Amino acid sequence: MNVKTRLGALELANPVVLTSGTAGYGKEISPYLDINRVGAITIKGLSLFPCSGNPPPRIYESASGVLNSIGLENKGVERFIQEDIPFLETFSTRVITNIWGTDEQSYLDVARVLTLVERVDGIEVNVSCPNVEKGGASFSCDLASLGSLIGKLRDVISKTFIVKLGPMKENIGDVMVLLEHLDVDAVSITNTFPALAVDVSTQQVYFSRKTAGLSGPAIKPLALRMVYEATQASDIPCIGMGGIASGTDALEFLLVGARAVGVGTATLSNPVASMEILEGIHSWLSERGIESVEDIIGKAR
Amino acid sequence: MNVKTRLGALELANPVVLTSGTAGYGKEISPYLDINRVGAITIKGLSLFPCSGNPPPRIYESASGVLNSIGLENKGVERFIQEDIPFLETFSTRVITNIWGTDEQSYLDVARVLTLVERVDGIEVNVSCPNVEKGGASFSCDLASLGSLIGKLRDVISKTFIVKLGPMKENIGDVMVLLEHLDVDAVSITNTFPALAVDVSTQQVYFSRKTAGLSGPAIKPLALRMVYEATQASDIPCIGMGGIASGTDALEFLLVGARAVGVGTATLSNPVASMEILEGIHSWLSERGIESVEDIIGKAR
Amino acid sequence: MKKALVTGKRRDGNLVEFVCKCPEIAKSAVPGQFVMISVSTTLDPFLNRPLGILWAEGDYFSVLFEIVGRGTSLLAQLEKGDTLSLLGPLGNGYSLDVPRALLLAGGRGIVTLHFLARTLKEIGISISMLFGIQNRSEIVLSRYMVNCAKGVQRFCCEEEISGVFQGTIVDALEDYATVQTIPEGTGVFACGPEGMLRALARHPLLENHRVEVSLEAVMGCGFGVCLSCAHKGRDGYLHVCSEGPVFPLSEVAW
Amino acid sequence: MKKALVTGKRRDGNLVEFVCKCPEIAKSAVPGQFVMISVSTTLDPFLNRPLGILWAEGDYFSVLFEIVGRGTSLLAQLEKGDTLSLLGPLGNGYSLDVPRALLLAGGRGIVTLHFLARTLKEIGISISMLFGIQNRSEIVLSRYMVNCAKGVQRFCCEEEISGVFQGTIVDALEDYATVQTIPEGTGVFACGPEGMLRALARHPLLENHRVEVSLEAVMGCGFGVCLSCAHKGRDGYLHVCSEGPVFPLSEVAW
Ligand SMILES: Cc1cc2nc3c(=O)[nH]c(=O)nc-3n(C[C@H](O)[C@H](O)[C@H](O)COP(=O)(O)OP(=O)(O)OC[C@H]3O[C@@H](n4cnc5c(N)ncnc54)[C@H](O)[C@@H]3O)c2cc1C
Ligand SMILES: Cc1cc2nc3c(=O)[nH]c(=O)nc-3n(C[C@H](O)[C@H](O)[C@H](O)COP(=O)(O)OP(=O)(O)OC[C@H]3O[C@@H](n4cnc5c(N)ncnc54)[C@H](O)[C@@H]3O)c2cc1C
Ligand SMILES: Cc1cc2nc3c(=O)[nH]c(=O)nc-3n(C[C@H](O)[C@H](O)[C@H](O)COP(=O)(O)O)c2cc1C
Ligand SMILES: Cc1cc2nc3c(=O)[nH]c(=O)nc-3n(C[C@H](O)[C@H](O)[C@H](O)COP(=O)(O)O)c2cc1C
Ligand code: FES
Ligand code: FES
To answer: Could you tell me if A184 and A150 are in contact, meaning their C-beta atoms sit under 8 angstroms apart?
Structure first.
């Protein structure tokens, strides 16, 4: 059976991708999961300088979902290259680095550094970080500022260029058309949803930054709709994600048009969730005598 | 203990309201629940003419959530008045009628009829029905068309005038400011979220209309955020709803600023969920020696 | 919600039967009705599941279900001594005012017809029952055929099983009709998969009979408030939980 | 995920102890480590819950927890014979290379210090243990104090209980220090509520000692990938699951 898939020029051995922020820098997940077996690993969102993130508490559990307010904590791109790239060089899996910035310049600076790193196969740009003040949110709130950022990044990124979208005001079809014009290689859909939690014991909002991002099984139907609409509007390859916790969940995303699937929150409750999902895809295809995962991508219309 | 609350001129004996579409026309829920004990009952969305709704299947269960594609089936305002108002006249609870239309005229026509019905205490206008082609969706997609509809309805509605909002492109704070200018008495937040389900056994999208509305516990954190932002932007009384299934859930909405809470999907799995929620509010307040529910409204900021 | 104590459990492969103690439900249930059972104590899955009533007697009633998905899998984990949270009895049952009855049950459609057969037998109405399954995995269901001294009883399977009539329930009905006429006024009751009911709807043998069918639909509430259980009818949609699940065949469309 | 068979269960009010069989975890666990336990087979709640290891011996280990919310309530429903799905042992334990030890346990903080005391005793290191609770409802926890022939053992409660020292663990420490000096080099280990640890952090009695504390944080994964378990540290945030849960007190900030 053929489970290979493709994000533009980047070939993945299978469609299951670890999403950003739920697999650390690679090292952290490695004792639990052989990262050579996933289609790709996406690194925690990197910024130019280290970022200490938000004050605790940073995570809250809702019905079948998780709210996080990590605040994009990360060690910064330089320390990542020093401390983690050598480790990643001992693996053959695809490595996608997720990046963010607080203005166009800082995005461009990180992208310029990472595009020179051989071990990096793809650069995923987070344009929708609801947790950080002045964060990416501003770049996805209208087509003009999104287009400006992405256009400039396209000029500096020589790796597979992935734009990671979240819920936004603009029509997702319009965004896809814009990204197609800007020659983006792939999109990841979706990032977390802006949400709020209240602690009735203290009678206060739970997170210090008030809103936080909702992920996990609760958002799967919302994510499926976004992927469905995005892949109908454009042929840009899409990594579908949002609440995937089983092989069936992954197949749903592939059926509506995703070419790969991201596993995020599920990894937190089970570090080998991605492997079980991959096995689920395998056995579903083989039970139906379907030769290639390509054959089901976009079949549900 | 005082659990009375107020939506403009309309006083409710307690803050727990049955939401539209999950309590039928009143008659259907009555064998299971004494509707005199809820703060108000909201009737299934009424249109000028009967509407047969969407083809089955109409409901799908996701993780801690429910997708519905009822398609606003209803018997039409005339039959409601003939068949159900006499029944409702035997009760003293507050009755809110939910209405929708396919253009301004049809909204206005239903509103004109209902505003003359004595037993009707409030009229809730659904401006965000994602299930019906050409439905309310268009009225909430920009401030101009929303403002035009609401302004005209304000002129014909003499009952408590409630606007029911759902997820939309416009900033919710801006919408609230607009509604305040238009002298709306209250808002209901939120309607369902546009979502999609896939049936892997048929490899097709599950609903014939493709997208459907997500409700239930899964959406609570999203709804809380909307209510939080809306009540910070404006003092219009808000009925908060979205996934409320326990007294604690209801308290969370009151703490962020809702003056009443709606119980929808929870009624489907337990017809007396609203009563258990009301008891939960009561015992929480009394355990803390809080005299009046007013004292906690908007405390979490 | 009502509470019912599970006083007995029987499991055969994918089929589970619970005997439950709940006088409130047992004493008022009539054949064709169903219950909505809560399958989880957490918020997932959130909705109850509809199951037909297999029989009711004294303080007890029973349900019989097939494990097909998340809800039924969770339910199957309950054991004797556990407590069910449920609503019921719900919906409208079969008409009992018939001079004689012909019951056509397909697969797990036998559940409510089992209850009907027992009840008709009790009140002295003669019944014939045809019961069909698709393959041998469902053979245990034949346990629920009710032995009726006077009437005919037939068992058929689409798969070959030695000694068993091979064919669909429609084939069995045609075969039955060659030896036995269906007297005018016979109450015909059918419960089974949509495909079977649809085939019966157009069948000339049943043309001049009063036929009642029990429909299924994916349900939200089971008690009439959500309008999710729509099924095509002659004049617009039927609502399976509140107007059915039993309908005159003539009112149903496909 | 690893599997562990629940071979014993003890429940006292809101406290539950499970004895579990899982050689993989039991054989490698050291005092201070924890496990992440799955509390539901459905999708709600979705995350695992962290629980300290009470003891480990041969093929067995044990956890002791208080029912405080949804997850612990669900966990408490499991019985002997059920199987836990879990990860562990996780995190870094206490330092065992000390000449003598003073253990300060507050409430359910006794869990990991119980394991530490047993281990130190086994390797022949003399220990003293002060154990404090807030009110009499927690009195059953005193069962987990480890009897150490040579060391001092003290039990205190903020509420009045006859025959028991009344006060916080800090009061008890001060009282202890009036009769006993804390020799230089003593390993001081503290586990308990944040308030207690904060009070110890500024306490002159511990100023010149090597103190290790075990921290708690709300956790997403428990194995270092999500960065949700942040706790204020001297230089930026500490990550409780991967860098802790045991930290030198000097590295922690509040
Ligand atoms: C009035 C009525 C009486 C019923 N009586 C019985 C009975 O006596 N014994 C029995 O085994 N089953 C009966 N069913 C069907 C039973 O309700 C479904 O099999 C069950 O709800 C599936 O739940 P699940 O969570 O396991 O499956 P899911 O995971 O929800 O779905 C699995 C499959 O079952 C289908 N399904 C889901 N819900 C329903 C539904 N309400 N009706 C029909 N198909 C559904 C889905 O489309 C899917 O294909 C009855 C249904 C109705 C409406
Ligand atoms: C390393 C570590 C070891 C622990 N060891 C033990 C132990 O041995 N015995 C024991 O009883 N408890 C222990 N805890 C605390 C235990 O994890 C929480 O009580 C549990 O996760 C609460 O789950 P819940 O679903 O019942 O509560 P929830 O419904 O999630 O919350 C109830 C309350 O508990 C708080 N809470 C939730 N998660 C945590 C958490 N991870 N840490 C601290 N507070 C939390 C919430 O803020 C809330 O106030 C430990 C925590 C950590 C981080
Ligand atoms: C703890 C946590 C941290 C995350 N950090 C990032 C991040 O740094 N950058 C990013 O683009 N997305 C981040 N995400 C979003 C996920 O990559 C993913 O898009 C989202 O959670 C939806 O998928 P899921 O439901 O499978 O988790 C994070 C999510 C979680 C739960
Ligand atoms: C089956 C169903 C039917 C609904 N019908 C309507 C409707 O007719 N009009 C309307 O404004 N909202 C309708 N809603 C939305 C609910 O009133 C409510 O706003 C939403 O479901 C969120 O609340 P909940 O999570 O408590 O259900 C419907 C919801 C459901 C589940
Ligand atoms: S299932 Fe809700 S009305 Fe029938
Ligand atoms: S809990 Fe995930 S990194 Fe510590």
So the answer is: yes
Tell me, what's the pLDDT at B179? 97
Residue B129: predicted pLDDT: 61
> What are the structure tokens assigned to D143, written together?
């069962």
Question: Which residue segments constitute the domains of chain A, with CATH numbers given?
Answer: 5-56+72-195+215-295 (3.20.20.70)
Find the residues whose C-beta lies inside 6 A of ligand 6: D 219-222, 224-229, 239, 241-242
All residue ranges of chain B with pLDDT < 50 are: 130-136
ipTM of model:
0.96
Beta-carbon contacts of D62 under 8 Å, excluding residues fewer than 6 positions away, are D8, D17, D18, D19, D20, D53, D54, D55, D56
Give, in order, the Cα–Cα distances in Å from B243 to each of B152, B155, B219, B265, C113. 32, 33, 6, 7, 38
Q: Within its chain, how far is the Cα of C142 from the centroid?
A: 13
Cis, peptide link before residue D45, omega less than 30° from 0: yes
Peptide bond into B86 cis (omega under 30): no
The two tokens of residue A66 are: 């998780």
Place of tokens 């051989």: A118
CA of residue B22 to ligand 4 center, whole Å: 6
Supply the residue whose CA is at minimum distance from atom 29 of ligand 3.
A21
Whether the CB-CB separation of A228 and B196 falls below 8 Å is answered with yes
Q: Where in chain D is the domain with CATH 3.40.50.80?
A: 100-251
* Whole-number pLDDT of residue D145: 86
Which has the minimum average pLDDT: A182-186, B198-202, C24-28, C138-142? C138-142
Looking at all shown ligands, the one closest to residue C229's CA atom is 5
- Return the pLDDT at B138: 61
C-alpha dist (Å) from residue C254 to B23, C145, C235, D163: 28, 28, 12, 80
A184 contact partners, CB below 8 Å, separation of at least 6: A150, A154, A161, A162, A163, A236
Which of A54, A192, A261, A274 has the most ligand 3 atoms within 8 A of CB, as the residue to mutate?
Answer: A192
Confidence (pTM):
0.96
Domain topology for D100-251: Rossmann fold (3.40.50)
Q: Quick check: C36 pLDDT over 70?
A: yes
User: CA–CA separation, C120 vs D115, rounded Å?
Assistant: 68
CATH of D2-89, one of 1.25.40.10, 2.40.30.10, 3.40.1190.20, 3.40.50.300: 2.40.30.10
For residue D218, give the nearest of A261, C14, A69 by alpha carbon: A69
Q: Looking at residue B136, what is its pLDDT?
A: 43
Task: Using alpha carbons, list the distances in angstroms from residue C71 to B61, C20, C39, D16.
Answer: 10, 18, 6, 29
Taking CB atoms and an 8 Å cutoff, what residues of chain B touch A62?
A: 217-218, 220-221
Distance between CA atoms of residues C50 and A45, nearest Å:
46
The closest alpha carbon to A72, from A120, A118, A106, belongs to A106
Q: Which residue of A has its CA nearest to C46?
A: A63
Low-confidence ranges of chain A (pLDDT < 70): 129-138
Here the tokens at position C214 are: 């029990």
Nearest 5°: the CA angle A82, A86, A90 is 165
* Residue C19 near residue C8, CB atoms below 8 Å: yes
**pLDDT digits over D154-180, tens only?**
898 999 888 888 899 999 898 888 888
Weakest-pLDDT range from A26-30, B206-210, D80-84, D199-203: D199-203
Q: What is the CA radius of gyration of chain A?
A: 18
CA distance A206 to A225: 29
Rounded distance between C-alpha atoms, residue D188 and residue C97, angstroms: 85
CA distance to A76, B140, B189, B299, per residue, from B262 (Å): 45, 21, 9, 19
- Helix or strand or coil: residue A216? coil
